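Re: that chain you flagged

S.,

Sorry for the slow reply, it's been a week of failed gels. I finally had a moment to sit down with the sequence you sent. For the record, here it is as I used it:
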Amino acid sequence: MTSSELPINQPRNRWFRRLALLTVVVVYVLILLGGIVRSTGAGMGCPDWPKCFGSWVPPTQESQLPSNYKEIFGQKLKGEVEFNALKTWIEYLNRLFGAFTGFLVLGTLLASFSFFRKDRPIFYMSLLAFVLVGFQGWLGSKVVSFELKPVMVTLHMLVAIVIVFVLLYVLARSYAGNLRVEKISDKTFLNKWFYWTIGLSLLQVIMGTQVREAIDEVMKNTGYDARDQWIGALDYRFYVHRSFSLVILAMHVGLIYLLRKNTVGSGFLFNLTTALMIAVVIEIGTGIILAYFGMPAFAQPIHLTLATLVVGMQFVGLLMLNAEKVFSNRVFQLV
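Prediction finished late last night. Pasting the structure tokens below so you have them in one place:
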């Protein structure tokens, strides 16, 4: 079937686009919740998995637990189990929302069957997203069983970004014929700049997880409530991460300049890169708040979520820049 024959505006296709968009939004909310879990120190609020303190519905007070619960659940945690109802329920609600996200991804996969004949990449990528979500769930159990080991937490974060990329591809492809994408006079250098921007941004995200791991090490000595002491006790990883944000800012300034220079007309890419620049500035702003205002808990999950939002927007921009090549059998309105 050729691109001109694709029933891009059928009600079923519009419904699929809405479901795919909802799924992407919910995945980002899940990343935000994961950041809240980390910023509140609730990562081990449930010391076991998939249950929480041996129950599908965790307790709300310590009296509901066995008197020897520290021995029961502290075997793999070297006895370091202290029930905290708030942390327990933060972690538990995060798990429930993760399950809800999994069902949405499953729903996207089931809905993608309608594309199996006319646009199979949508189906196959939806299937890949579902498999990756299953893997992410298993990986989440290992993060708990390995007591939040740094390498496991970093891997968990990277898999989340891959899931976002796959779902964004599905979403972008399903929007064929419904987006106005500018004509680009010279894509060669702009493509290279996009790749470098994405690569360096992912490196910055990885360095950010390294800083978070360093904070965990510091927290063991200072305690969770001594947030104003954390920055001063961090090693070189924090300073590299902080300085590298200027490189990321420069890459985005260059990206917008190159796009404006080589663009004929105004459309999706113009709006996307404008929003991208705003997200980068806010991201750097939250980093400044964390660095100079005592690491407030509210800023940590926002900083993390914006980082994944930025790389996601970059990925969509790269896809749309090469829409005619990447989505070879789909139609995008060029302006």
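What I noticed first: The chain has two domains: 1-176, 179-335.

Talk soon,
D.
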